[in-house]
Amino acid sequence: MKRGMSFGFALLFALSLVACNTVRGVGRDIEAGGKAIQKATR
């Protein structure tokens, strides 16, 4: 039982790290898009 719970927590931890990287990537893409729009309007 404890081994299954440990595996579950490890899996959730790994998924949370992947989600953070994905959110950061989306934020960078949005920021780059905003900069491109600003350059285009100048």
Helix/strand layout:
Elements lengths: L1 H40 L1
List the secondary-structure elements in sequence, H or E: H
Number of helices: 1
Q: Oligomeric state of the chains?
A: single chain
Largest pleated sheet? none
Work out the number of β strands.
0
Level of helix content? over 70%
Euclidean distance between termini CA atoms: 62 Å
- In terms of DSSP E residues, the strand content is under 5%
Overall SS class: mainly alpha
Domain tally: 1
Report mean pLDDT, rounded to a whole number: 81
Q: State Rg.
A: 18 Å
The stretches of 5 or more residues where confidence is low (pLDDT under 50) are none
Overall form:
rod-shaped
What does this structure look like?
The chain has 42 residues and is mainly α. The chain has one domain. The protein contains 1 helix and no strands. The N and C termini lie far apart (62 Å). 0% of the residues are buried. The model has no long low-confidence stretch (mean pLDDT 81).
